[in-house]
Amino acid sequence: MEARQSNATGSARRPMATPSELHPDLAELAFLLGEWSGTGEGVWPPGEAFDYAEDVTFEYVGDPFLLYSERSWSLDEGSPIHFENGFLRPAGAGDIELVLAHPIGITEVAVGTVRDGVIELSSTAVSLTPTASPVTQLRRRIEGRGDGLSFELEMAMEGVQLRWHVSSELMRA
User: Fold this and answer.
1) What does the angle CA 28 – CA 72 – CA 21 come to, to the nearest 5 degrees?
2) Cα–Cα distance between 162 and 145 in angstroms, integer?
């Protein structure tokens, strides 16, 4: 395996692309590019409310999709709460697809739309490992407003109908 070479700033990471370099199919998703940080609140059914901090990154690597990474942690304890990684892909005419892996034993495929800085996605498939939480459906809404990004997630589980789970307000880092 060959080691990555450092760039001019000494970082081994490839710099993120700017919107002017984007593949044309990603034009409607350009508002997402970059690193975002903020706080949110949530409830894990059937649990108590919690507050959290969150970092989200959308990165362009030269192909017609965005890399997506999310991490969150407890504001009270500083302990990790959740991670997810995946891809956001245009599917033509304002339609998009999301493919995610969660370390809690869940993979998620969702489809939806992007219109005027608003993304709405609903899961079409949720796969579980034998030890995963019994999640059955997810619905997401992401809205960009200048240097702000809001996230909302609804979730259903075995025995729990689709309901609000978390929401956050992020600012461009």
Assistant:
1) 25
2) 26
pTM greater than the 0.90 cutoff: no
CB 64 within 8 A of CB 84: no
Contact 40, 59 (CB under 8 A): no
162: how many CB neighbours lie within 10 A of its CB?
14
Peptide bond before 80: cis, by omega within 30 degrees of 0? no
Question: Per CATH, which fold does 19-172 belong to?
Answer: Lipocalin (2.40.128)
Mean pLDDT, consecutive 10-residue stretches, the chain (173 aa), reads: 42 57 92 97 85 97 95 95 97 96 96 97 98 95 97 94 96 96
Residue type, 15: P
